[in-house]
Specification:
Layout (H helix, E strand, L loop, with lengths): L9 E6 L5 E7 L2 E7 L12 E3 L3 E5 L1 E6 L7 H4 L6 H12 L4 H18 L1 E9 L8 H12 L5 E7 L6 H9 L4 E3 L8 H15 L2 E6 L9 H8 L6 E5 L8 H13 L3 E4 L1 H7 L15 H6 L4 E3 L16 H12 L3 H7 L2 H7 L14 E5 L3 H7 L4 E5 L2 E6 L19
Helix pairs in contact: 3-4, 6-7, 7-8, 11-12
Length: about 425
């Protein structure tokens, strides 16, 4: 059912991340003005007013690293718990049997969960498959992208093993993929595979997003990626970068400086890498996460994503970027504000999207969360949310709580 204020002209009495109470006027999907609460002119059409009293108004979340073709497959595969390579083996066995309809159904459900929680843009990696139909996943995600284009931006990046021919990768771009990527560090000849994928992106002028150094102890390819893409104007990202968090500090800082010089966006994936990495380290298990503090302190482009959700690479996940933000606080020692930026404005920057914010001139991709301040929102992940994309409400969630055994009904006091 559509509501009368699905395209509001005024967001009234919202609280910003800095604690200010404001009225926000919108038009044509853009924030027009931000003024103290109670001072904006009220539209004659009351349906054009969205009352956000009690809500925190923030830049909507963006997911810079997803695998929508894999999402929700854990219960179908029942894979062994283990490391990255074991997950790859179990996924490939399932991929040999799955249908295009299966991928569409799981991906659509995952996207809707993301949007419900406040995500209005998703970059998804999609496997190019071995066998007679390597573009099955690409076709499925193009269909989902088209179907849900009114509520979310979806960007498709190819993910290809080293034995997938270059012609197949090019065909995936022709079929609707937006960019290319691979996990070159897993190839028998990592630098040769990296050069091949970089060459395709350069030739096609498309987005390049590499899975990079997803290991605690093995080869580092970030330096080579930075060297190969120095001076590029197209968007380049490096996901995972787990090894960057375990090399000596002087080497880490030099690699970060090199990546920053080439304007490579670094995308941490805390939930999946904390799950996958360190199984062989029984004592003082290292944290499987990119060095977020060092990256932010150096001024590098930094974002964070959920990566895998309930598939062989990660059995858990709530499809909520606030979960990713919480893990950045716990696992990477960021503040709540830094962590939220990584899953919102930072993610949009790394994805090459226009800025969205509670600021005049910014895109009105916003999320209103029932909370008093940002730390509470990250800590509690309140269910009550209103999601706007380009100034239009695309999702609403509300919740109620009863305590029927209490003799006198009392409101639930939420810790502030």
């Amino acid at each position: 059912m559509r509501h009368g204020n699905d395209t509001p002209a005024l967001l009234r009495s919202a609280t910003t991340a800095t604690g200010d109470k404001v009225d926000v006027t919108l038009a044509d999907g853009i924030v027009q003005a931000v003024v103290p609460a109670g001072t904006a002119a009220i539209p004659t059409d009351s349906a054009a007013v969205l009352d956000l009293d009690g809500h925190l108004l923030l830049t909507s979340m963006a997911e810079p690293h997803a695998h929508l073709d894999k999402a929700g497959s854990w219960d179908r595969i029942h894979p062994p718990m283990g490391d990255l390579r074991a997950a790859i083996v179990s996924w490939r066995a399932y991929a040999d049997t799955m249908t295009e309809a299966d991928v569409v159904d799981r991906a659509r459900a995952q996207v809707l969960r993301n949007v419900r929680h406040g995500t209005t843009a998703i970059r998804t990696h999609v496997d190019l498959l071995r066998g007679p139909d390597p573009l099955l996943g690409i076709r499925a995600l193009v269909a989902v992208r088209d179907e849900l284009s009114d509520i979310v931006d979806i960007e498709i990046i190819t993910l290809s093993p080293d034995d997938i021919p270059t012609d197949t990768i090019e065909a995936a771009l022709d079929a609707g993929a937006d960019g290319v990527g691979a996990a070159a560090h897993l190839a028998p000849e990592p630098l040769e595979e990296l050069e091949r994928i970089v060459g395709i992106a350069e030739r096609r002028g498309c987005v390049l997003d590499m899975h990079t150094d997803e290991s605690l102890h093995e080869v580092v390819t970030l330096d080579a990626l930075a060297g190969l893409t120095r001076g590029w104007t197209t968007n380049v990202s490096a996901g995972h970068c787990v090894r960057l968090g375990t090399v000596p500090a002087h080497q880490r800082d030099a690699l970060i400086a090199t990546a920053k010089e080439s304007r490579i966006g670094i995308i941490a994936n805390p939930i999946t890498n904390l799950y996958l990495q360190g199984w062989g380290d029984d004592v003082a298990t290292p944290r499987g996460i990119a060095p977020a503090r060092a990256l932010l302190d150096a001024g590098a482009r930094f974002a964070a994503g959920a990566d895998n959700v309930r598939d062989p690479f990660n059995p858990l996940g709530r499809s909520d970027a606030l979960e990713t933000a919480m893990l950045l606080v716990v696992g990477a020692h960021l503040t709540a504000h830094e962590a939220y930026a990584a899953v919102s404005s930072g993610a949009r920057d790394v994805m090459g999207l226009p800025a969205a914010d509670v600021t005049p001139g910014a895109h009105a991709d916003l999320v209103a969360i029932r909370a008093d301040h940002l730390t509470q929102a990250v800590a509690e992940a309140p269910a009550d949310r209103i999601v706007l994309r380009r100034g239009r409400v695309v999702a609403r969630t509300s919740s109620t709580t009863d305590f029927p055994s209490l003799t006198a009904p009392a409101p639930l006091e939420v810790a502030r």
